[in-house]
Amino acid sequence: MRSRHLLGLEGMPAEDINLILDTAISFKEVLSRRIPKVPTLRGMTIVNLFYEPSTRTRISFELAEKRLSADTVNFSASGSSVSKGETLKDTLQNIEAMKIDMVVIRHSAAGSPHYLTTCCQSIVINAGDGAHEHPTQGLLDIFTMREKYGKIDGLKVVIVGDIKHSRVARSNIWGLLTLGAKVSVCGPPTLLPVEMEKFGIKVFDDLDEALDGVDIVNVLRLQRERQQSGLLPSLREYSRYWGITKERLGKLNENFTIMHPGPMNRGVEISSEVAEGTYSVILPQVTNGVAIRMAVLYLLSGGSRKDPTTGGKVDE
Ligand code: CP
């Protein structure tokens, strides 16, 4: 890995992305064992610093750390000294004073993981920063696509929903473009960022046009507060024009795939029928998330000269 930290997929070389994906294959095998645990990160201490709610990412990181035999500590902003006014920098410097090796951070402020790298010694992993990036979600999505199609180059992927405020969309876009996928986005004009086309991304506000000839639809959660902020007339209208229902799927390529990072608003951005259809990989995405996070933790720990699946040294 060229970087000491994982802050985002923007600018990450294809070799590094592929190294993470390939390493995750070994860890997926570990997870299928009767005892799904290896001693690879024994002696390392990892703090999961979550300033925003999370189900999947938080549990997935914690499980990945435990499967690698690291010592883990979970921190939630609620119930901590953050409520007494302690800053992010002071919080992490105090936790670091207790001797830790890595920090996994989710924060509503874009750039907060990068900021921590300037004032702390630990290896930093971004678990979602504002509307900026969610790199491990992007990696697990790409891993899930590659697992099904055997490649990313040339795949046609459309991301549907609130592109403007989505860190999942950004990480997917950067990673997929680097690996040669054809990426398009679709959503209400008020939720589409300007200047997407200059990156080679097609932009649609008509869902039926966007779905034509596509292999993969990655459906984003609609953040309900967008309606309060005046960016959407109503959830019902959103659902009617941009919701993924079974009737909409006819234009997709044969062997198409439906993805969603979760949490889902059933009946808003995706119908239950689609979410639970045979073409949906929403739960496999979650399974793959543990393997991807194990790969990231292992590679950032400097483990490339160790056998990931045993923790022992490999011959050089
Ligand atoms: N996909 C995702 O980031 O889900 P959580 O917010 O539950 O972690």
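^ phosphoric acid mono(formamide)ester complex. The chain has two domains: 14-132+286-305, 135-284. Residues 54-58, 128, 134, 137, 261-263 surround phosphoric acid mono(formamide)ester (CB under 6 Å).
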